[in-house]
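Mods, move this if it's the wrong board.
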Amino acid sequence: MTAICWLGTALLLFLIGSLLSLLLNRNEGLAIKLSGAFSLLGGVAGVLCALPVLLSGQTVTAEYAGPFAAFAHLTLRLDLLAAFMVLVISILTVVCAIYSFAYLEEYRGKGAWAMGFFMNLFIASMVALVAVDNAFYFIVLFEAMSLSSYFLVISEQDDEAVSAGLLYFLIAHAGSVLIMLAFFLMYRHAGSLDFAAFRAADMPVGEASAVFLLAFFGFGAKAGMLPLHGWLPRAHPAAPSHASAMMSGVMVKIGVFGIIKVGIDLLGATEAWWGIVVLAFGAVSSVLGVLYALAEHDIKRLLAYHTVENIGIILMGVGAGMIGMATNHPLLALLGLLGGLYHLINHALFKGLLFLGAGAVIYRTHTKNMEIMGGLGKLMPRTAMAFLMGCMAISALPPLNGFVSEWFTYQSLFTMSKAGGIGLQLAGPIAIVMLAITGALAAMCFVKVYGICFCGAPRSEQVERATEVPASMTIAMWLLALLCIVLGIGAAQVAPMITQIAAELSGQTATSVATAATVFPGDVNQTSLNTPLLFIMLLALPLLPLLLFSFTGKNNRLNFIQRGTPWACGYGYEQRMSLTAGSFAQPLKVLFAPLYRMRKTLDPAPMFHRSLDATTDAAARVEPVWDDHIVMPVVGAVQRLSRVVQLIQYGDFRVYCLYVVAALVALLLVTMA
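Not the wrong board. Structure tokens:
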């Protein structure tokens, strides 16, 4: 089968799973199994669709008449970037489908069939969106993705979920309007809605810049970058955990995909300041995202803020790549896009793992509040170990995948600081410092998360009763943990494939990827990129004997396999004195108090709620105008006329006969006249 056939098969399987889940709404157990099974098969078909394109490096296209052939051709184009996105979506889909078999049992009788219906539609719309090569179908599928994810957000149907869903709905559609305006400007020059025509159109610099800014902020709203992030820390915690994993791991990447699609693929990244804008918003998002995460006690809300942080890191790589393209520095372009795209797939894996791990904890403890957790490492050991792998990966610790992508991002920023004029030489070090601060705070945050949730002693009775989650949930988490290890240790094999994508986007010849362990390229014109494999091995090998000795030693102090009373910060008999999530972050909250106050200023939720309240009040004032001045006067006149007409109603049959005779006489007189 060809890649296009596998793509069609994947979409068909998702749609069948969605339809079956809808039809089986009265048999939720069967609906859960069938929707999950078809989602799983669709994900496998998506992987089989993407791999041949990525391995061969050949773009595959197909064109169909479609229902709107008169003005929009249904064109499918699987280039390397589209295939890469299909692969990322499909991998996480497979894992979340396995997870859902047990997880959705918690939602029996609460609309589990609806979750299966909207989840399959959500995935199908994302897969189709990255493959279409026409602006009309792109917008339609973008809308389908937004609407299906909106219904996943409000699936709990409580006040917080509905409020979060409304905010997400408003920001998502505000972004859609900006994207449509960008496509309309390109359509005016191209005379067609096909992306191929957009690529060939010769737009003036001013209009091209307007298109870029419209698309950047439109897609940035979907990506959750600051200051358009207000929906994200509310919508992700409200959705079911496997949906949160898909939204955070994949859906926000559609925003990044859109920025790359318009800024690089369609417009060619011709202006250096476009890349600087992307880099600047990415740097601010990364630092503030992790700062806001540190202050959170809700585990899913904390992870949502880390999505803002990691989107910022991805945008830093993409921005550096765009600067390299605009300033004609091939190595910078390749390094930046390599770092951004590598972190894109890495974040999908470890953030998906962390959301699934958080879902497993909530599944057993029925709380998102980290303050009342603790001691789950003993009670849920398989979940705890998988979650620890995710914490290490997102903290960029070797030999896991997060380290590799941040390594390439650092290399791109070091290269930028040496490759351009004075502006870039200043921007590079500033971005490096902000990325370093982000990495340090991320490590601190996940020390807090893992220590408060899984270490120490349980802080509540409901946590003391927690047990390990079902096998399908642990299998899903461990699959992602394994992939985090593979993409870290196997960087020398993965990086060349992603470099091919970066080379196709930037119009460069892909350089060979060496395994040298250097901090940054010594020469801007060198023709090799550096992967950190050797550096990882140098760090890991000295620790290997220590780990083996620790696990196998029988009577040594380093033996990890020991049982005893957990450390309670020296306050085992006074729970109020023990370390909490709030006390852990308190010094930073005091130190960065102005930035935390800024969060309220940047949060668009109050503005939207004020606007909604004002609109509701205005509607309440306007609504009676029609009734008071038009409807009610007419009703009053009819009632007065009725009372006058009522005078001729005597209730006497003989009088009514007289009325009939009088009416006949009147008609005769009229006809005679």
